[in-house]
Write a structure and sequence with these properties.
The chain has 485 residues and is α+β, with helices and mostly antiparallel strands. The chain is built from 15 helices and 23 strands. The two termini are 42 Å apart. It binds one RNA strand of 76 nucleotides through helix 1, helix 2, strand 11, strand 14 and helix 11.
Length: 485
RNA sequence: CGGGGCGUAGCGCAGUUGGUAGCGCAUCUGGUUUGGGACCAGAGGGUCGCUGGUUCGAGUCCAGUCGCCCCGACCA
């Protein structure tokens, strides 16, 4: 083997990830592993969320949890084991989830009388408890959220995007009237939208699911859908109007003020660790992750450029770190010895840290600091005294730039289709999401899948201004259609 | 669950016709270095995924099995 000359390039290739444009699947896997977000586990389809990835999840939790509570919800925790007889009470619900439920059949060496489902979602167990807790209209509404793990036995899994076990929050509410339940459903969809667009900088399309695509057991499902750079949509959060389906199945009834016993109206809504996968896919580039400042575990990293005899640079770096921490920047000082600055640059770029702060002898002399943006790669020198204000401003700018860049992709990859041929071309050739009119029939909906592998992601608020692109009959809905993760 | 690919040191890989396992990175020690992934010298590290078979001898051949990745049918 030829060593000396190729050594450097070989090493570089080894350290780098597969270019995103070349193979987005491999790129995704490379980045997740190399940024130490997650690792594969010995159990098929499961992953370990590593500290850096978990810190991101904690930031997500913090923001969502505060919003849930602000809107009157309380957290609780329900068991992960659900008796089989509970799960089978709501017919559509069982049918929908049966293929992906994991079962516990034994306790120790003894076989259980009734096997227990490991929750794929908690409507059943929570419905059971609500039936017990709710007696009067005065007990309503019930507004509960839980942060939990759930298990769905998926055939194809990928870190964050689809894992056998995943973390999420699931809100479960019960209301006196359908109107009130619908308000809750839309309110929570709005919470998701605001969070994903505002904090994760991921632009969305949102709306109602088709009956075919709705949650098993719901009356209607509303979704937020993000579009990945390969043109595939990712369902990133859902809010369900469960009508009285679960109330009837679990006998959730209350005595109303008119003396009548009535079934409650329930909702549920959830967002999972999948959203981390969305952020990775949408924002990442060939150098690695690009995390939005609002959720980044490390918002700025300080890297001292140290020469052996220059203790003053280290001292200055510590000062910079403290000053940034004092204005609530999540800052990290990397003063490890034995790593060259260039190596550190690459590492924090891989990890998606929004801003790098370099400080060296030259900067000390000029009374300045060097800042490098992760989103644009732009390098700038600012007077020492302007550090705090500049960093704070850059956090805003980087957040906005990431959103704008993603919004541009969403815009370019949302293609209006007036004919079926245009629809197929949008999906297959342009690797985009199609925006089209549809008659509402299951037959035509099936054609999207059959001819392009695409599904209706959600209804679009836009005007229904053409005939159904499939059958040519009068259209009922304007819809977004895309292939999906 | 179908089609394809891959399992060899922590990671990435090589291993010819079957002959007793190697390279780079990483790690450890010492030294010189440090503004875009440093260099020199030395050291440690392996049940070749697993099981069985063929053979004097298997990382290599055969069968089975498990796992992972990619592409399709089902799903947050």
């Amino acid at each position: 083997m030829n060593k000396p000359n190729t050594q450097n390039t070989n090493k570089k290739n080894m350290e780098a990830v597969t270019p995103k444009s070349e193979d987005i699947s491999r790129w995704y896997t490379d980045v997740v592993l190399k940024a130490r977000m997650a690792d594969y586990s010995p159990v098929k389809g499961c992953m370990i969320i590593r500290p850096y990835g978990y810190a991101l999840w904690e930031n997500i939790q913090k923001i969502l949890d505060a919003e849930f509570k602000r809107l009157g919800h309380q957290n609780a925790y329900f068991p992960m084991f659900i008796p089989e007889s509970f799960l089978t009470k709501e017919a559509e619900h069982v049918e929908g989830f049966a293929p992906e439920v994991a079962w516990v059949t034994h306790g120790g060496s003894e076989e259980l009388e009734e096997r227990l489902a490991i929750r794929p979602t908690s409507e059943a167990i929570i419905g059971h408890m609500y039936a017990k807790w709710i007696e009067s209209y005065r007990d309503l509404p019930v507004l509960i959220n839980q942060w939990a793990n759930v298990v769905r036995w998926e055939k194809v899994t990928r870190p964050f995007l689809r894992t056998t076990e995943f973390l999420w929050q699931e809100g479960h509410t019960a209301h006196r009237t359908h109107e009130e339940a619908c308000e809750e459903v839309m309110q929570m969809l709005g919470v998701y939208r605001k969070f994903v667009e505002g904090s994760l900088a991921i632009p969305l399309v949102t709306g109602e699911k088709s009956q075919k695509e709705k949650f098993a057991g719901a009356l209607n499902t509303y979704t937020i859908e993000a579009l990945m750079p390969d043109g595939q949509a990712l369902q990133s959060g859902t809010s369900h109007d469960l009508g009285q389906n679960f109330a009837k199945a679990f006998d959730i009834r209350f005595l109303d003020s008119d003396g009548e016993r009535k079934y409650a109206w329930t909702t549920s809504w959830g967002m999972s660790t999948r959203i981390i996968g969305a952020a990775i896919m949408v924002h990442g580039d060939d150098r690695g992750l690009r995390l939005p400042p609002k959720v980044a575990p490390i918002q700025a990293v300080v890297i001292p450029i140290v020469y052996k005899d220059s203790q003053d640079v280290i001292i200055k770096a510590r000062e910079l770190m403290k000053r940034l921490a004092a204005c609530d920047i999540r800052v990290h000082l990397d003063d490890r010895e034995g790593f060259k600055p260039g190596w550190k640059y690459s590492e924090y770029e891989m990890m998606g840290v929004p801003l790098r702060v370099e400080i060296g002898q030259k900067d000390l002399e000029k009374n300045q600091v060097c800042l490098v943006r992760r989103d644009t790669g732009e390098k700038m020198f600012v007077p020492d005294a302007e550090l705090e204000t500049t960093v704070q401003r850059l956090m805003e700018e980087i957040q906005q730039t990431l959103f704008n860049q993603a919004a541009e992709i969403l815009k370019n990859k949302t293609v209006r289709a007036l004919t079926f041929a245009e629809f197929v071309a949008a999906i297959k050739e342009k690797q985009s999401m199609a925006d089209l009119c549809w008659c509402g029939s299951l037959e035509c909906e099936a054609k999207f899948k059959a001819e392009a592998g695409a599904t209706i992601r959600c209804f679009n608020d836009g005007p229904v201004d053409t005939a159904c692109v499939v059958c040519g009959k009068p259209a009922q809905k304007r819809v977004f259609v895309a292939r999906a993760y």
